[in-house]
Design a protein that fits this description.
heterodimer, A: mainly alpha, ABC transporter involved in vitamin B12 uptake, BtuC, two-stranded antiparallel sheet, 4 strands, about 70% helix, globular, B: alpha/beta, Rossmann fold, 2 domains, seven-stranded mixed β-sheet, five-stranded parallel β-sheet, 13 helices, elongated, Branched chain amino acid ABC transporter substrate-binding protein (chain B), signal (chain B), Leu-bd (chain B)
Chain lengths: ~300, ~425
């Protein structure tokens, strides 16, 4: 049992990354009821944006100094692509039946993957992402890598900022109003198109932060990294209650911890030895999703309309 | 939320669609050398199948270039008088479905006399049937799963040739894994090992052969774990492995996952070397992994740099100016391609200097008897289609390079 603190730490770190990406799914869904399947690729492009900045800087730049610039670069790339996608791929389909934008999103996802594969130099295989050197840190009985510390700081900061933005600012309240009833919101003088662009922007920015965290954690970015991670983050958003920003983060954490604990402990249960370990962790994560959806179809924190944004 | 069912169905459908569409082949460009201005020469083609894109493209590109080099050399020196070879490389992205499509495509081309490839054992399984049905020779420079040639009962020593048209210039995991087990016990002096595999045909077979030999010699397997090949987060497994205090971790799988695994092991406090097979033996393993120092990998054959027979290959490869390195399978690929060229030569000679109309069956027959000194040493195939060369080398990461530590032919005993 003495690996419990470590496994929890593993789960929380992984979950915080899922949560940051899940914000993008949940905000866009909350406002326009669109599952933006290209969001995983927005995440991936954020990673490549940050990598580009790193490559452009002199090689001797300390990573700690370069990091803010890399984050800015990642956010710029991700937001640019997300806003362009919204303007040209999704907005023309705003009034169309729901399946049309869904399929568009899938098409866009493939197109973005291929574009990076084709045009980013050497992106046909995984590219090396810079990492912090030095020993890992020991916190509360768990070992944490230096790069992971970034996630542990960035995720709560981002969530607090987003929470304040949505509840305190005019634009944030406009988002809540649009989520509740877009037509009435427009009648009340809210520029819903602008609100939607802001939702895409925030989602993309958060995904870019997650992508930088991904790069620091694993030391690599590649053109396919958004697919599996995006799917997991989407699961996290549904688990937490799609449309709810706190739900997305909670869903991410629950999913991450469930994966870590399933890997660590299922095979210790008598008779379950063959269902444990790394190969079954995704199965258990989805079993959890199904159980939650059976008992609470709206997700863990779903359907609290007032908080939806 | 009345649309919940739609949401769920759409999710399920799109997941499936994405998984399928990710498998299409991407690079169908002909980079072959053609040019047969209606002379007396016959043009035949040698197909190639390897992952030219994706995670394993470093190895796959090395395979493509080395085969291209063999074809170019054969054309330049007119190795087979009256026959010009064309080169048809296809990308399988390490996906069995793509491999099968490529095999079907090449088999349908009457000019194709043989296929070099694939890299992955799981891809080979999907190509063997197609090659067999079309009497087309398929020679892999890299497949190491014993089942491919000897059938699934090889463990009970009930060996039976599976496909008469399938050959390989790489030795099997049975040999490589056992060599690794012996090396770990005798030379690394490990006694407790934690074994991880990636659930692919190659990884599982290699890890099983390693564990069998290691325990037979007196070592202990303190834990086993299986991961998904796409995983990059292994922290939960690291925590588990740490609790068992191993003095070596063995990974049956390939470098894209092995690199983050090794790094996370060391970051997580498991400060022992990671050991793997030829799938881990890539320069990219070291660039992707800042904590690779001290890790081990075995690979088939001797390092080509140490072989006199390989000097010409290395010089030619450099002179040709390929963008990617030849990597682990350069030598064995050149030999596999050269084996097809030699088989064509035999058939042409026996047919009075002219290629017969349907040469495929005859080429396969000739391959069974082929014998020449290749880049990696003497090349010939045994009764299962396996190479008779069982030379294996253990490498260790030293600084930023793999250094050969120990080479020996493995003998079963």
């Amino acid at each position: 049992m003495h690996q419990l603190p470590q496994q929890l730490a593993n789960g929380i770190i992984l979950g915080a990354m899922y949560g940051l990406i899940a914000i993008g799914y949940t905000m866009v869904y909350g406002i326009v009821q669109l599952i933006n399947f290209a969001h995983g690729e927005i995440f991936m492009i954020g990673g490549f944006g940050a990598l580009t900045v790193h490559l452009a800087l002199p090689a001797a730049t300390p990573l700690l100094l370069a990091l803010p610039l890399m984050i800015a670069g990642g956010i710029t790339a991700a937001v640019a692509i997300a806003v362009t996608a919204e303007r040209f791929a999704y907005r023309p389909l705003r009034g169309a039946p729901r399946l049309a934008p869904l399929i568009t999103a899938i098409g866009l996802s493939i197109a973005l993957q291929q574009a990076v594969w084709k045009w980013y130099p050497d992106a046909k295989k995984a590219r090396v992402f810079p990492q912090f050197t030095g020993d890992s840190l020991h916190l509360l009985g768990a070992t944490v890598q230096r790069g992971e510390l970034f996630l542990l700081i960035a995720a709560p900061l981002c969530m607090t900022a987003l929470g304040l933005f949505v509840s305190r600012t005019r634009t944030g309240r406009g988002m809540q109003a649009t989520a509740q009833d877009p037509d009435t919101a427009r009648l009340m003088g809210i520029d819903t198109d602008r609100i939607i662009v802001i939702a895409f922007t925030i989602g993309a920015a958060f995904a870019a932060v997650a992508a930088v965290a991904h790069g620091l954690k694993y030391g690599q970015v590649d053109f396919r990294m958004g697919f599996i991670t995006g799917l997991k983050a989407f699961t996290a958003a549904v688990l937490g209650g799609i449309g709810n920003i706190y739900g997305a983060m909670l869903g991410g954490l629950v999913l991450g911890i469930a994966e870590a604990l399933a890997t660590g402990y299922i095979d210790h249960i008598p008779g379950m030895a063959q269902f444990g370990g790394g190969s079954w962790k995704d199965v258990w994560a989805f079993v959890l999703l199904i159980l939650v959806l059976l008992l609470r179809p709206q997700g863990l924190l779903g359907e609290r309309v007032a908080d939806r944004a | 939320m009345r649309h919940r069912p739609l949401l769920i169905i759409a999710t399920a459908l799109t997941t499936g669609t994405l998984a399928l569409t990710a498998c299409g082949s991407r690079d169908d460009k002909d980079t072959g050398t053609t040019g047969n201005p209606g002379g007396k020469t016959t043009t035949v083609a040698i197909g190639l199948d390897s992952p030219l894109t994706g995670d394993l493209s470093a190895l796959g590109q090395g395979i493509k270039n080395s085969a291209h080099l063999a074809v170019t050399n054969a054309n330049k020196t007119k190795e087979v008088p009256g026959v010009t070879f064309k080169f048809l490389p296809l990308d399988d992205q390490a996906q069995p479905t793509s491999g099968q499509q490529n095999a079907t495509k090449l088999a349908g081309d009457k000019r194709v006399v043989g296929i070099v490839g694939p890299l992955n054992s799981s891809v080979a399984q999907s190509m063997q049937q197609v090659a067999q049905a079309n009497n087309l020779a398929l020679i892999s420079p890299a497949n190491t799963t014993p089942d491919l040639t000897q059938g699934k009962d090889w463990k009970q020593n009930n060996r039976k040739r599976q496909f008469t048209t399938y050959f390989r210039t790489a030795t099997t995991d049975e040999v490589q894994g056992a060599f690794g087990g012996q090396y770990a016990y005798e030379q690394i002096k490990a006694r407790k090992v934690y074994v991880i595999d990636d659930q692919k045909t190659y990884g599982v077979g290699l890890a099983a052969a390693f564990a069998a030999k290691f325990t037979a010699m007196g070592g202990t397997v303190v834990g086993t774990e299986h991961v998904n090949p796409e995983d990059r987060d292994f922290k939960a497994i690291v925590s588990k492995a740490k609790a068992t205090t191993p003095d070596l971790v063995f990974y049956g799988g390939e470098y894209p996952a092995a690199a983050p695994l090794s790094q996370q092991l060391k970051d997580g406090g498991v400060t022992v070397p990671l050991m793997g097979g030829d799938g881990m033996y890539s320069a990219d393993y070291i660039t992707l992994n800042k904590k690779s120092a001290g890790d081990y990998a075995t690979s088939v054959g001797k390092p080509v740099e140490q072989l006199d027979s390989a000097k010409k290959f290395i010089a030619d490869y450099k002179a040709a100016g390929y963008k990617d390195r030849y990597e682990a399978y350069g030598g064995s690929t050149y030999d596999a391609t050269w084996a097809i060229i030699q088989a064509v030569k035999t058939v042409v000679t026996e047919n009075g200097g002219k290629l017969p109309d349907n040469p495929r069956t005859k080429i396969v027959e000739a391959l069974n008897k082929v014998k020449f000194d290749g880049v990696t040493g003497p090349v010939s195939f045994d009764q299962y289609g396996d190479t008779t060369n069982t030379m294996i080398t253990a490498y260790q990461v030293d600084g930023t390079q793999w250094k050969a530590r120990h080479s020996a032919p493995y003998k079963k005993n």
